[in-house]
């Protein structure tokens, strides 16, 4: 029963995504606006489609604002908290997802977390104490965080990904062994 419902959902999602792209190709802002006023996540699951939606909206938004889309764009700009240790030993945070974190140790570290998770806070505190740069995605708000969580088969938080190695839960020993 659930598989049947999932298949129907997936089929409907594909049809709606195609219809949305047809409205963009036809430059039909009115239909585009109507479809995106629903704030449906299915339009934002694929990165390419999301980029096209944002680009078209940027080009045509003067014809009328789409509030749910504007809120999503604002959220997407602020979804990634990047921690980068400065050379003086101080830490800084930025919400600009375009900036790349740096580290003298050249580790690629991503933390998938929630704001209320105490073990997530411990994991991030540990990484900061070691001067390790990382990206922190709140899986409740971030489309990219949700995608990564599914990709790495998350079943709880934190989910720490270090150089491609996935650590489920908080384990200082595992993080230490994977970090170079």
What's the overall average pLDDT, rounded?
80
Separate helix tally: 7
The counted number of beta strands is 6
Secondary-structure element order, N to C: HHHHEEEHEHEEH
Rg on CA atoms, Å: 19 Å
Helix content: 40-55%
Structural class, by secondary structure, is: alpha+beta
Unreliable stretches covering 5 or more consecutive residues: 87-105
What does this molecule look like?
- The chain has 180 residues and is an alpha+beta fold.
- The chain folds into two domains: 2-76; 79-178, 3-Layer(aba) Sandwich (Glutaredoxin), CATH 3.40.30.10.
- It has helices at 2-25, 29-36, 47-60, 67-78, 118-129, 143-151, 172-178, and strands spanning 80-85, 91-94, 109-113, 134-138, 159-162, 165-168.
- The longest helix has 24 residues, at 2-25.
Topology:
Blueprint: H1 2-25, H2 29-36, H3 47-60, H4 67-78, E1 80-85, E2 91-94, E3 109-113, H5 118-129, E4 134-138, H6 143-151, E5 159-162, E6 165-168, H7 172-178
Parallel strand pairs: 3-4
Antiparallel strand pairs: 1-2, 1-4, 3-5, 5-6
């Amino acid at each position: 029963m659930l598989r049947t419902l999932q298949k129907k959902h997936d089929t409907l999602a594909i049809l709606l995504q195609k219809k949305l792209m047809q409205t963009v190709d036809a430059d039909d802002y009115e239909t585009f606006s109507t479809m995106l006023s629903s704030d449906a996540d299915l339009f934002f699951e694929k990165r390419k489609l999301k980029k096209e939606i944002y680009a078209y909206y940027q080009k045509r938004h003067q014809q009328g604002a789409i509030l749910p889309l504007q809120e999503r764009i604002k959220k997407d700009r602020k979804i990634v908290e990047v921690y980068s240790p400065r050379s003086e030993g101080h830490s800084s945070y930025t919400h600009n997802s375009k900036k790349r974190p740096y580290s003298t140790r050249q580790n690629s570290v991503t933390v998938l977390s929630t704001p209320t998770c105490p073990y997530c806070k411990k994991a991030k505190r540990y990484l900061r104490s070691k001067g390790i740069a990382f990206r922190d995605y709140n899986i409740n708000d971030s489309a990219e965080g949700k995608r990564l969580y599914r990709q790495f088969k998350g079943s709880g938080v934190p989910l720490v990904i270090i150089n491609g190695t996935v650590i489920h839960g908080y384990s200082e020993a595992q993080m230490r062994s994977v970090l170079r």
